[in-house]
Design brief:
65% helix, 5 helices, mainly alpha
Length: 124
Amino acid sequence: KQWYQRRVRGALEQLLLFGRDLASQNIQNEELKKQLKDAFSLLAYRDPRQSQMGYLMEPGQREQLCADLNSAMLESHGLPRQPPLELAISQTKNCVVKMLESGMGSGAYTGLEKQVKCSLKPQQ
């Protein structure tokens, strides 16, 4: 139990340091600044769901917040805001849509979502 508590405490300390580092950067996007501030404020509560920012714990809000934080982290390391895999999947989806709009029926057999889900499942 003590080992687990030390690990959690260490992870929280790293998260706080990262938050301070992000806060010290000159982030131009005001909406992103607000989201970061709101997200890191959740760490101050024993039960974040009961806090003023508890709405951020809802599934839809959580997903958007995670995507925004991921983009901020990537950008803070000098990387593109959108991960390459995400960009490739988005472009492939757009290509399939264009193929179908152009009457290329073979686009219907692409099954991109199925391929992505299968490739992301852990090997057993």
